[in-house]
Amino acid sequence: MGEKTLSIGEATDQLTSAGGRFELSTALVRGQETKVWKYAPESLRVVLEASLAHGDQDFLVYEDERITFTEHFRMAATFAHRLSAIGVVKGDRVAIVMRNLPEWIIAFWGAASLGAVVVPINAWWTGEELTYGLNDSGAKVAVVDQERVERLLPFCDQLTKLGHIIVASEDRSDSFQKEKFPAEKTFLSFASFLGEVENDAVLPEVEIDPDDLATIFYTSGTTGRPKGAVGTHRNTCSNLMNLFFIGTRSTLRFGTGNTENGESIQNSYLLSVPLFHATGCHAVLIVNTMAGGKLVMMHHFNPERALELIEREKITTFGGVPTMVMQVLDSPKFASTDISSVRSVSYGGAPAPPDLVRRITEAFPIGQPGNGYGMTETSAATAMNTGPDYVARPDSVGTAVPVADVAIVPEDFDGLDPDPSRPIGPDVTGELWIKGPHVVQGYWNRPKETEAVFTNGWVHTGDVARIDDEGFIYIVDRAKDMIIRGGENIYSVEVESALFEHQAISDCAVIGIPHEVLGEEVGVVLTLRSGCSVTAEELTRHVKERLAAYNVPTHFYFRDEPLPRNPAGKVLKRQLRDEVLATS
């Protein structure tokens, strides 16, 4: 008879006991007494310095390029000095606007270790959207790739706060033609800006406090333009500890982990999600930098290429979002690829069909499936469901980490703290609120939105959830007007605003349409002005001219009668979606 598996509670108590790596403490965070990890790194600078311990192991693999941990540290330290030389100081914003490239990571660590605030901007945005992000954040420097710089060129005269634009070469040729860029901005190639990297390069001296600003990640809002979620070094390092704890607890309970014949092996992570998302940056990049994991990067996601890299690089962890996992499993090359190294198939950012759990457990003999819950406002991970727990509860996102308080609050509640007398229990649904050291401090220069979403250390997630008797969280619905398509958050109001600019549109409502691969697609129900007509093809072009391609609706439903609304005038989207799906 084998040993009894520890319950989640037993394992948590054991790992968080006094003197252990995951001992808990409390700290005053923005005036609120908050549970914290006692031994969390104080800053991202500390994390980068710790990565030197991994020495000559591979850290970054991009196509055929390889960069060790030591090489990366020297490059990041040199980049920090170069930023300092052009006047970047602690608190200045440094934007990164590019697809996943090694330069993204070097720039991130160099800027963060200097005390600058890193602003990862969505690389799929249009030139106008990119310009908004750069201006709104007040970025002093932008590190961009060739495709993004071409989008920005028509808007250079609007980038009044930006001084330096550093251009990385996607084709690795470093073909940089300075004369094509306007003279009023300083354009430099990444290679020439970095210059010679000394073998003994160290970071510039700077004092960084845990509650100093570290990042601004833009997240679409329910009204108007995207807003920047302002994260601190405490936020990012708490998330690092959250994920370390989740992995350690899973190993303690289920005997999983990166070991072979009793020996530890290097984690090798196939990076398939964008670094400009909190998942890619906080949950993958920062964690693997600290832990000594190898990051295998792809120029763009392709399931066949992913399988080649899984075999070549002995990938131990991959995932990203559910649609990517499904594409790999469905690939005709899957059966002929050696996937025996895979030990974890984890994802988040989108609802996952329960059948995917079964497929993973069947396809990967030693691979543990996992699904998590988090958001930009929680610096990535708040809960995770792994291994046998996930197999048993495939519709749950797991239990919250020990430093997180979670509460189910009535959707119409307007208090600052969850009411102690509110209904509780496994059958009670309501809005999920989260409190912890990983919750960001608010939105950049948006006091009203910050006040509405963050109260006394709690973030109001906008997700409707329930929590069972063992603490497992189930996301029932989204109160926020959001669609998740293949891992990309799409806020309906942005798409609706673009549609309302078309003269034929009288009223419209954007809704999520279920899709077995992407999770959801964008649908729109609309009514037309009297005497007007328009085709779906014309509206597709109209939206694509104004928003990034993933926002463009793929389902159009024309309606003669008015859209259903409540007494306050709000469209009843859940009812509308049910009607559309029932008649489609």
From TrEMBL:
Domain AMP-dependent synthetase/ligase: 53-444
GO MF, any single term: acid-thiol ligase activity
Signal peptide: none
Provenance organism: freshwater metagenome
Residue ranges of domain AMP-binding enzyme C-terminal in the record: 494-570
Protein name (Swiss-Prot/TrEMBL): Unannotated protein
InterPro entries: AMP-bd_C, AMP-bd_C_sf, AMP-binding_CS, AMP-dep_synth/lig_dom, ANL_N_sf, ATP-dep_AMP-bd_enzyme
Gene3D superfamilies to which the protein is assigned, alphabetical: 3.30.300.30, N-terminal domain of ligase-like
